[in-house]
Design a protein that fits this description.
Blueprint lengths: L13 H4 L12 H14 L4 H9 L4 H4 L6 H4 L7 H11 L17 H8 L3 H8 L2 E2 L5 E5 L2 E6 L4 E6 L2 E4 L3 H13 L9 E2 L19 H7 L3 H10 L3 E2 L5 E8 L2 E8 L8 E7 L2 H4 L2 H17 L14
Antiparallel strand pairs: 1-2, 2-3, 3-4, 4-5, 6-10, 7-8, 8-9, 9-10
The structure holds iron/sulfur cluster (2 copies).
Length: 314
């Protein structure tokens, strides 16, 4: 399957079938280099999209470039319409959807808030390694920011600059509630385990498979892109695999992402590790939701602000 850096699939094009137009390829492919050389020979210049993608080391603009849709597409009138580019621009800023493994929209059960209101908050804060604001809200460290949980209003906000912004993201709200309700006073073991070592490993198959394939496809040949996306979420680099980061989702829930680049012999690979203590705090569905959330945020590559569709912090 020959797909150009721009996203056109040459193998479904009649011009290609007829041999009128040769196959293109990604910005990192031999086919792409050949196409560029052929164009330069015939027209004296290469396709600006392909040239740019090759120079930036981007395989596919739509998947791999944070600048898409850039000026090459907007001013070039080729290969996508204005309407299509506007749709891409709008939807790339939409917060990742909160869905269950079966694709249903996540709903936060009202009982969770009721259960929280019945807790001894002093004890809860100690157990969860969180604190209370002067107004009595819970302040929960979350990746590289804080969640402010308003128990009376039953809302969550995220720190944004010096203020707080209301967050309408059911998965984050649900995970934060599950965390404060179920976290134990159990320290990290610092023993890292893979999915297969979880007691509930059988859960993570079929529709419950962890969202790692898109990470591998997006970043398997782009370590810099992975590092950039991870650092925007406050990930801390660790010395494992070709690139690895630890994300502190909540104070007692670190999650580790490992990435191996592909080469001539082996395809790229992505994997996730947990502290062995994770199952004391989170059931399998909460672990699944946590990995899903971090993977979505990495794929969006715009930092925590993508949770409400805002611009990333400078
Ligand atoms: S527009 Fe450029 S990148 Fe896309 S298929 Fe044509 S030559 Fe390749
Ligand atoms: S800047 Fe534009 S043309 Fe260049 S790689 Fe990114 S999206 Fe493609």
């Amino acid at each position: 399957m020959a797909t150009g850096a721009c996203g056109i699939n040459c193998s479904v094009c009649r011009l290609n079938l007829l041999g009128i137009c040769g196959s293109c390829g990604s910005g990192r492919s031999v086919e792409g280099s050949r196409k560029r050389a052929e164009m330069e020979r015939i027209f004296g210049t290469g396709c600006p999209i392909l040239v740019c993608a090759m120079e930036r080391g981007v395989e596919y603009c739509l998947r791999d470039c944070d600048r898409f849709p850039c000026v090459q597409f907007k001013d070039g009138h080729y290969p996508f319409s204005e309407g299509y580019l506007a749709m891409q621009e709008r939807r790339r800023k939409e917060p990742p959807k909160s869905r269950s493994p079966l694709g249903e929209l996540v709903k936060v059960p009202g009982e969770y808030w009721a259960a929280l209101n019945a807790q001894d908050l002093g004890e809860l804060c100690e157990r969860a390694l969180i604190s209370q604001s002067s107004q009595g809200e819970l302040l929960i460290p979350f990746l590289n920011t804080f969640i402010l949980m308003d128990l009376k209003g039953q809302t969550v906000s995220l720190q944004s600059g010096r203020g707080w912004k209301h967050l309408d993201h059911p998965l984050v709200e649900l995970l934060a509630l599950v965390y404060v309700l179920h976290v134990k006073n159990a320290p990290l073991t610092n023993r890292l385990i893979g999915v297969s070592e979880l007691k509930t490993s059988h859960f993570f198959t079929g529709p419950h498979e962890l969202k790692l394939r898109p990470i591998m496809e997006r970043f398997g040949n782009d370590l810099e892109g992975f590092k950039n996306a991870a650092e925007k979420l406050g990930g801390e680099s660790i010395e494992l695999a070709d690139a690895a980061y630890s994300f502190k989702l909540f104070p007692r829930i670190p999650i580790y992402y490992l990435l191996w680049q592909g080469d001539d012999e082996f395809p790229p690979n992505a994997s996730v590790l947990f502290d062995q203590s994770i199952e004391q705090h989170f059931a399998a569905d909460a672990i699944w939701g946590s990995v899903n959330l971090i993977s979505d945020l990495l794929l969006m590559a715009r930092g925590i602000e993508s949770l409400w569709g805002g611009e990333e912090r400078g």
